[in-house]
Amino acid sequence: MKRSIKVLALSLTLAASVAAGAALALPERFAREEQAICGMAEEAAVLKQGSTGSLVRTVQTKLKRWGYYDGSVDGIYGSKTKKAVVYFQKKNGLTADGIVGKKTFAALGMMNEANGGSSGSSGSASGTNGYTSSDVYLLARCIYGEARGECYEGQVAVGAVVLNRVKSPSFPNTISGVIYQKGAFTAVDDGQINLTPNQTAVNAAKDAMNGWDPTYGCLYYYNPVTATSQWIFSRETVTTIGKHVFAI
Questions:
Q1: What letter would DSSP give residue 196?
Q2: Residue 174's CATH number
Q3: 186 within domain boundaries
Q4: What total number of domains does the chain contain?
Q5: Which whole-number Å values give the CA distances from 171 to 70, 143, 234, in the listed order?
Q6: What is the pLDDT of residues 174-189, one digit of tens each?
Q7: In Å, how far are 83, 133, 155, 196 from 191, measured between CA atoms?
Q8: In this structure, are 237 and 158 located in the same domain?
Q9: Spatial separation of the C-alpha atoms in residues 226 and 234, rounded to whole Å
């Protein structure tokens, strides 16, 4: 009788141990599954050779429109698409690895799509001389980060310099490419590009896009009080607006 009781007690102990082990294993399993899902979410915001889908098609469309890509817009990230991305990255001062990550998405003007937004909202026409609403907003952010303390004309002038660079063969040929070019703007380096622009900056961006250029074609500007680069002082001065000197 005593032996039967001991056997029963041992069986119950083993069963409890197995149940406890299973209970501990479930959270671990769920944690692994959650990590896998998070990993998939992270990968969704990166395009590389072998990727497919609407985001790839949007990248191909933009690169084709800008002259980087001459293949089919089929949503398949093949070798020709990778080659075009590398070409675009080199032109825009990005790491030329053929992978469309956060910085390349930004240079393509596709951060909304990369974060899961609609491509239609990012690429919709703004009514400002053919520029998209995302172009207007990004330029306004740059103006606000670089020149929110300047007079209105000075803010338009900063926007005009960005647009003049887009038109110049010496710089990237997109607004996002110019703004995010490495070392080009202090507001990008110190994070002020991420501040929410006020209506004045938005209006200044629109005026610059509609053709107002108070700089008369300048590609550079600087504050002579705070500038440290001797090179910038060697540029030919065209005009001074507020605290900024505008040059070519």
A1: P
A2: 1.10.10.2520
A3: yes
A4: 3
A5: 22, 18, 19
A6: 999 999 988 899 999 8
A7: 31, 21, 18, 12
A8: yes
A9: 15
Strand order in the sheet with 220-222: 220-222, 244-247, 237-241
Q: What is the pTM of this model?
A: 0.57
Determine the Cα–Cα distance for residues 37 and 71; give it in Å rounded to an integer.
33
Residues 4 and 37 in one domain: yes
For 243, the domain range is 124-247
49 within a domain of the structure (yes/no): no
Structure tokens at 115: 């974060």
With beta carbons less than 8 A apart as the criterion, state whether 244 and 150 touch. Answer: yes
The two three-digit tokens of residue 4, written as one number: 């039967």
In what helix (H) or strand (E) does residue 103 lie, and over which residues does it extend?
helix 102-107
SS3 at position 127: strand
Q: Do 135 and 217 sit in the same domain of this protein?
A: yes
Q: Are 195 and 144 in contact (CB under 8 A)?
A: yes
| Same domain? 235 vs 148 | yes
CATH of the domain at 111: 1.10.101.10
> Residue 54 is encoded by which pair of tokens?
């609407």
> Same structural domain for residues 184 and 233?
yes
- pLDDT tens digits, residue range 197-239? 999 999 999 999 999 999 999 999 999 988 878 888 899 999 9
CB 215, CB 157: distance < 8 Å: yes
- In a domain, residue 177? The reply is yes
Return the DSSP state at 47: B
Helix (H, G, I), strand (E, B) or coil at 86: helix
Number of helical (H) and strand (E) elements in the chain, helices listed first = 12, 5
